[in-house]
């Protein structure tokens, strides 16, 4: 099916995929910021994440009038691409136009997000897997800062660890911003999303600050 034919339809599929590791052991870990952002979108738009297909937990629904797949690969982080490749093939998605990936980022402070149209994996194993499986790095992504590894700390222990109590407010705001940015990207407003959110401290757009 050609891209032109698909775009002539009133609704066509868009996939927002959040990366993470399945299971209670990893629930709400730093590495699962993508999963948690997908859950936030599902709650906000009333999309049930209860279907299993292509090695992923997913749900279908409408976000701002567009038919959307919310996807959480269950392959574990390092094999995320194997799952997303199956969705891309089945739904005939164009990664650059019909897909967005949300992941954690240990180079950003907790709750800071970064929106990018395309680019390298930046050392993130989940993004590496997606790039390898799709054969392209041309897909938009939103990266959610989960805090840098402490000096002398262990990377694996850091990303698989839980957010500390003093970080939770910023983390929640970061995931909220990531969800908002994802919707903007889906609507073709990626430049606006980059201008609004890249470099923003989470507290700069918090409800408390807005109330003065």
Name of the CATH homologous superfamily: Peptidyl-tRNA hydrolase
Count of DSSP strands: 7
Major sheet strand order: 2-3-4-1-5-7-6
SS summary, helix count: 9
Characterize the largest beta sheet: strand count, sense, and whether it forms a barrel. 7 strands, mixed
Q: Which parts are unreliable, with pLDDT below 50 for 5 consecutive residues or more?
A: 1-11, 207-212
> In the residues, how many domains can be counted?
1
CATH fold-level name: Rossmann fold
User: Approximately how much beta-strand content do the residues carry?
Assistant: 15-25%
Estimate the global geometry from the Cα principal axes.
globular
SSE pattern: HEHEEEHHEEHEHHHH
Structural class: alpha/beta
Mean pLDDT: 91
Q: First CA to last CA: what distance?
A: 52 Å
């Amino acid at each position: 099916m050609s891209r032109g034919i698909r775009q002539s339809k009133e609704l066509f599929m868009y996939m927002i995929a959040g990366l993470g590791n399945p299971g209670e052991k990893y629930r709400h870990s730093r590495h699962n910021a993508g999963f948690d952002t997908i859950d936030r979108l599902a709650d906000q738009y009333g999309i049930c994440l209860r279907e299993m297909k292509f090695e992923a937990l997913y749900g279908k629904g409408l976000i701002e009038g567009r038919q959307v797949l919310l996807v959480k690969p269950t392959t574990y982080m390092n094999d995320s691409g194997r799952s997303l490749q199956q969705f891309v093939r089945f739904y005939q998605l164009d990664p650059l136009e019909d897909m967005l990936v949300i992941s954690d980022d240990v180079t950003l402070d907790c709750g800071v997000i970064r929106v990018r149209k395309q680019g390298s994996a930046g050392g993130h194993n989940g993004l590496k897997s997606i790039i390898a499986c799709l054969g392209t790095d041309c897909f938009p992504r939103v990266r959610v800062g989960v805090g840098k590894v402490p000096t002398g700390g262990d990377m694996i222990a850091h990303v698989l660890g839980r957010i500390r109590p003093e970080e939770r407010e910023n983390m929640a705001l970061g995931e909220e911003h990531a969800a908002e940015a994802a919707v903007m990207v889906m609507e073709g407003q990626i430049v606006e999303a980059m201008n609004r959110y890249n470099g923003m401290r989470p507290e700069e757009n918090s409800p408390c600050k807005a109330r003065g």
